[in-house]
Amino acid sequence: MKPSRLEAFSDGVFAVAITLLVFNLKVPAIASGNLGKALGHDWPSYFAYVISFLSIGICWVNHHSIFDRVAMADRELLFANLGLLLGIVSIPFSTSLAATWYNQGSNARWAITIYCGIWVYTSAMFILVIRHLMSHEHLCAEVKGVTLKSLLRKGYLGIFIYFVATIVAAFLPIEAFIICFILAFYYVVGVQQEAV
To answer: How far is Cα 64 from Cα 67, in angstroms, rounded to an integer?
Structure first.
């Protein structure tokens, strides 16, 4: 199969996932009386939105970096990509879950552990896609720029940090969320020259 169909489908899934994030943001009720206070009360939703928007955006950029190298897609690559997209479309749900339950004691730990765990899964699927391409060189086209090895290193860094955040979430949920933000910020600012 030509990779253009796979990329078009994937772009559609990324677009839906990143758009769904905004539906988790609610306009404060007029009955609350004070707009500033009501907006301040909902800060976890805004913070979760920013983290997830950046992270999905980073995934989209890296997905293009990977699939720019694909000359032909085999059945295994299609299913690995579907596995990756499963993680991506789960992010709006886990973002809403984490933002809603962030201050609910043991439930907060569960909610943010689920959020971080979905990122571990998504990172693992990115690694699976990259490793499949590396072991099936006939699927790849010659492209200058960032290599699959470089993308794989970023994938291993991501899965390690998300795994650490998942463990931290079991004890310190807000701190785990902050770890996810720092990783997203690092990928946007620290390695932007490698992203495309």
So the answer is: 5
